[in-house]
Amino acid sequence: MQNEDNEDSSTKFLDIVPLGLVFLNMDTTIIMINQFALDTIQRSRDEVLMGRWDDIFPLSQNDEFTLPINRLQTTHLTCRGETFTAIIQPYTRGTISGYVVMFQRTAMLEEMTQQLDSFKNLSSDLQAIFDISYDVIYVSDGEGVTLRVSSACEKLW
Question: pTM for the complete prediction?
Answer without folding.
Answer: 0.64
